[in-house]
Each structure stands twice: as C-alpha cells, then as structure tokens.
Automatic annotation (TrEMBL):
UniProt similarity note: Belongs to the COG3 family.
Lineage: Eukaryota, Sar, Alveolata, Dinophyceae, Suessiales
Domain Conserved oligomeric Golgi complex subunit 3 C-terminal: from-to ranges: 228-365
UniProt xrefs under InterPro entries: COG3_C (IPR048685), COG3_N (IPR048320), COG_su3 (IPR007265)
UniProt subcellular location: Golgi apparatus membrane
Keywords: Golgi apparatus, Membrane, Protein transport, Transport
Membrane topology type: Peripheral membrane protein
Keyword NADP: no
Protein name from the UniProt record: Conserved oligomeric Golgi complex subunit 3
Domain Conserved oligomeric Golgi complex subunit 3 N-terminal: start-end pairs: 81-203
Length: 371
C-alpha cells in the first residue's frame, strides 16, 4: 500500500482517535452504564410518550364523544325549540278553535232560539189557518152516520167548532170573517139537525111500539097497563142520552145549542101529551065518594108525575129550569083538576071538602116522604 499523505486535520483526528482507543477500557464501562441508563430513560420516555399518546387518544375519544354529545344536544335543543314553536302554534290554533267553537255554539244557540220562535209563530199561524180551514174536516165528521153513537168524538167536534168560531169572531177584521161565520152557523145547524133527527127517530120508534101495544088492546082501552107508555122509551133512551148529555154540556157555548136542547125536550113532552088519557077518562066515568075520588086521582097524578120525571131523566140531564117537563107536569095537574072539579062542584058540604083536602095533604106528604 503506497503511503498517502493526509491532511493535517485528519491526522489530528486520527491521533485523537488513537488516544481515545487507549483510554477505551475504562470509558467503555462507563459508556455501557450510561447507555443502559439512556436506554432505560429512553424506554421510560417512550412508555410515558405511549401513555400520553394513549391518554391523548382517550381524551381525543372522549372529546369526540363530547363533541358528538354536544351535537346531539344541539340537535335535541333545536328539535325542542321546534317542538315548542309547534306547540305554541298548536296552542294558538286551539285558542282560535275554542273561539270559533264558542262563536259557533252561540250562533247555534241563537239559531235554535230563532227556530223555536219561528216554530211558535208557525203554530200560531197553523192555529189561525186551522180555525179558518177546519170546515171540511168538521163537515166530513158530520157525514159519519155513527157520530151520534160516539159522544166523546161528538163533544170534541163541538168544542173544536166553537173554538174556531170564537177565534174568527174575535178577528172580525179578517177579510173572510163574514163567510167563515156563515159557514160556522151552517155547521151548527147541521149538528143540531143531526141531534134532533137522532132523537126524533128514537121517539118515533118508541111511539110505534106503544101504538102497536095499544092497537093490540084496542077492544078494552080502559084496562091498558100504564107501564106500556114507558117501557119502550126507557129501552131506547140509552142510545140517545149520551148525545143529549153532550148537547147539555155544550149548551153554554152557543144559544143555538140551548135552543136545540129545549126543542128536543119539547118534542118528548109533546109526544108524551099525545098518549090517550085512558085512566083519567075512567076516573071521570066512575062516581065514587069524593074522598075516594081525590085519593085515586092524587095517587095516579103523583105516580104519573114520577114516571114522567124518570122518563125525562132517561133522555136528558136534569137541569133547572126544564120548561118542557114543567109544562108536561102542569098538563097532568090540569087533567087531574078536570076530573076533580066536577065532583067538587057537586059537593056543597064543607066537611066533605075538608076531608078531601086533608086526604090530598096526606097523599102529598106520603109522596114527599117516600121520594
């Protein structure tokens, strides 16, 4: 190997290196200890660095979790604010709905009250129209031949007729009021004619039965049983009295009903007068003593009067005054007087007249006590 000339600096370095190699054994041991310490320190530093890195990762992870939690919380807060805003909107809508509901309820209440008012007004109008337009329905009911046999329906018809007539009469300024009053008068006439015809038919039927019995006993008229003049009348009276009772109860509504009732009672009284007074004639032909004649005539008068009253009550309701019955009873008294007066004129003895008066008084007291 050829000699190489080195620079001065390199030579100094080689010398220092050589001197270092000479001191190497002592310095190597020291270096090893230092190196081991360095290695331990380095390992410790690495461990601490790894721990710090791990802790940093954990902190980073926690920080990331906190950031995520913050984001979730922020999102929840935003959602809560949105929900609160919607709740406020819903609450506002609810208040508006309540306001509209109250308004609708008040409006419905007013509408119902207005409807009730209109219904009441319509009922008033319907009542007025019914009063003005009830002629056809009443006339149709009067056409029913069985109406007289249904007193409840008959009484309702009369009340409806008079209520409508009273309404029309109170509204005299109506344009159709005069024609309506004429129509009501016509309907009253129909009712009265219907009742009188029904009574007349019943009386004719009863009279026909009496005449048949009298014809069968024509040969011996003086022995006619007084009961035959009443039996047929009492048998037929139940078919007539309900209608006559209705007429009596409604007679205060219009004078025409009262006049019809009087005429019906008069027709019965006239028919009763038309029957032959066979027993009175037989009393005229007999010539008993005055007291006996007074007793027989008075007894027959009281018995006949009682029978006539019961016959009248079978057809009509008792009332005061009842002029037809009173006139019939006066007729009976007149017949009794016609029997007694000739006998009383023939007796000039005051004693006989006094005895007859006492007997008449006793008969009357007995009759009052028995009745």
């Amino acid at each position: 190997m050829e000699d190489v000339v080195l620079p001065v600096r390199q030579e100094k370095l080689l010398e220092e290196l050589a001197s270092c190699q000479e001191e190497a054994p002592e310095e190597d041991a020291k270096f090893c200890d230092d190196f081991a310490a360095f290695q331990a320190l380095r390992k410790r530093c690495l461990d601490q660095q790894a721990a710090r890195r791990k802790e940093g990762d954990a902190q980073s992870q926690r920080l990331g979790w906190l950031q995520q939690l913050h984001q979730v919380s922020s999102a929840a807060e935003e959602a809560q604010q949105l929900v609160m805003a919607k709740l406020k909107h819903v609450e506002a809508e609810q208040r508006e709905l309540e306001r509209k509901t109250r308004w609708l309820r008040n409006h419905c209440q007013e509408a119902l009250e207005h409807q009730d008012h209109l219904n009441a007004y319509a009922e008033q109008i319907a009542g007025r129209l019914e009063a003005l337009c009830c002629f056809d329905s009443i006339a149709k009911e009067l056409d029913d031949s069985e109406l007289v046999s249904r007193p409840v329906q008959l009484e309702e018809l009369l009340q409806r007729l008079e209520a409508a007539a009273a309404f029309v009469e109170s509204r005299y300024d109506f344009l159709d009021a005069p024609s309506c009053r004429n129509t009501f008068d016509h309907l009253r006439n129909r009712v009265c004619i219907l009742l009188r015809s029904n009574l007349q038919y019943a009386l004719e039927a009863a009279d026909s039965q009496v005449q048949d019995l009298l014809w069968q006993q024509e040969e011996d008229a003086t022995s006619v049983d007084t009961q035959i003049f009443y039996t047929s009348f009492h048998m037929i009276a139940p078919s007539v009295k309900p209608a006559m009772s209705v007429l009596y109860r409604q007679s205060h509504l219009h004078r025409q009903y009262a006049a019809t009732l009087d005429a019906a009672e008069s027709s019965l009284a006239d028919l009763r007068r038309s029957f032959p007074a066979t027993h009175w004639e037989s009393l005229k032909e007999l010539t008993p003593e005055l007291p006996e004649l007074v007793r027989q005539a008075t007894s027959y008068l009281l018995d006949t009067s009682s029978r006539e009253i019961r016959c009248f009550e079978a057809f009509f309701e008792p009332r005061r005054p009842q002029e037809a019955l009173q006139s019939l009873l006066k007729e009976l008294c007149h017949r009794c007087c016609q029997v007694l007066l000739p006998a009383l004129r023939e007796h000039e003895s005051w004693e006989a007249l006094a005895s007859a008066a006492e007997l008449l008084k006793a008969e009357l007291q007995d009759f009052r006590g028995g009745s």
